[in-house]
């Protein structure tokens, strides 16, 4: 038993060594990618479920490499741990706002642009100044900018979080709670958060299928959001049935593969310019 135990321990620590070697390599690769501007932003459409109109987009970071696309779940956590999220996040913000000005011009009407913030970015002193700078440099109407944060970022130090949210709102930008319903306990604080939008997590939308059309949670969240004067967005809309149900229960906006995949700016524009002229 002892020997097995030791063996098990050795394997475990070898696994850890492999894992940390991988992290070290990925970190080096990430520094290189920052210097050489290898990241890209894809954009996913946000559609008004009642009118069908494209109302905005969400920026989603992509990292193309010769070995294939590295997805955000694979590098954002490490970027957070190493602090590299700061230069990457700055680039995302400026690039997204610049691109959205272009998109609005191309479409002939103003689109909103949503940018995801990570925990470390949200908690960093200087965020408000950074956003102010990006607004100034790009000249975008602040009301068109929506910053997405998650419940987990605001449950720890609630007062500080609210102060940051308020300072961002004072710049004129909007705030959304992402993945709503997956965090816990922030329900009680929700009414104190100066947020404009609730994004219902994909997991609740996934339950809207087949015979068991369980709309009760979705309906409750939409009611909650509306009651607090917020806009409600459903994420992860993957089929017609989900879209129709969400529309019926009064959800304002939808996002998901059925509405549009995350795409490079140019391709997204072509798709929607075509869709809206037919
Ligand atoms: P998120 O902000 O909740 O973004 C939604 C994720 O769901 C995206 O994954 C999107 O591609 C995917 N998605 C969209 N529609 C559907 C659908 O119909 N079905 C399914 N199954 N998935 C759908 P992605 O791009 O891989 O991003 C994952 C997460 O990584 C994001 O979750 C966000 O937390 C983070 N992330 C992505 N881009 C950024 C960024 O620019 N900055 C920061 N800080 N985080 C980012
Ligand atoms: Ca998001
Ligand atoms: Ca989400
Ligand atoms: Ca998320």
From TrEMBL:
Organism domain of life: Bacteria
EAL domain residues: 23-276
Official protein name in the record: EAL domain-containing protein
Organism per entry: Marinospirillum alkalitolerans
Full protein: residues contained: 306 to 583 of 584
């Amino acid at each position: 038993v002892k020997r097995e135990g030791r063996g098990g321990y050795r394997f475990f620590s070898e696994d850890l060594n492999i894992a940390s070697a991988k992290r070290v390599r990925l970190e080096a690769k990430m520094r290189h990618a920052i210097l050489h501007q290898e990241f890209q932003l894809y954009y996913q459409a946000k559609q008004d479920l009642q009118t069908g109109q494209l109302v905005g987009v969400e920026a989603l970071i992509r990292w193309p490499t010769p070995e294939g696309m590295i997805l955000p779940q694979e590098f954002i956590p490490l970027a957070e741990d190493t602090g590299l999220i700061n230069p990457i996040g700055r680039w995302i913000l400026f690039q997204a706002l610049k691109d959205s000005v272009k998109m609005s011009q191309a479409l002939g009407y103003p689109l909103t642009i949503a940018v995801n913030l990570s925990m470390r970015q949200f908690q960093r002193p200087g965020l408000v100044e950074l956003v102010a700078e990006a607004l100034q440099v790009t000249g975008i109407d602040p009301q068109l900018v929506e910053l997405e944060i998650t419940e987990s970022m605001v449950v720890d130090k609630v007062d500080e979080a609210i102060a940051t949210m308020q300072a961002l709102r004072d710049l004129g930008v909007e705030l959304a709670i992402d993945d709503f319903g997956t965090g816990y306990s922030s329900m009680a604080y929700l009414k104190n958060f100066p947020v404009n939008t609730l994004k219902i997590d994909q997991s609740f939308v996934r339950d809207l299928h087949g015979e068991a059309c369980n709309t009760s949670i979705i309906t409750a969240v939409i009611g909650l959001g509306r009651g607090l004067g917020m806009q409600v967005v459903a994420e992860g809309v993957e089929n017609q049935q989900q879209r129709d149900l969400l529309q019926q229960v009064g959800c304002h906006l939808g996002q998901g593969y059925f509405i549009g995949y995350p795409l490079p700016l140019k391709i997204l524009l072509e798709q929607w310019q075509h869709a809206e002229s037919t």
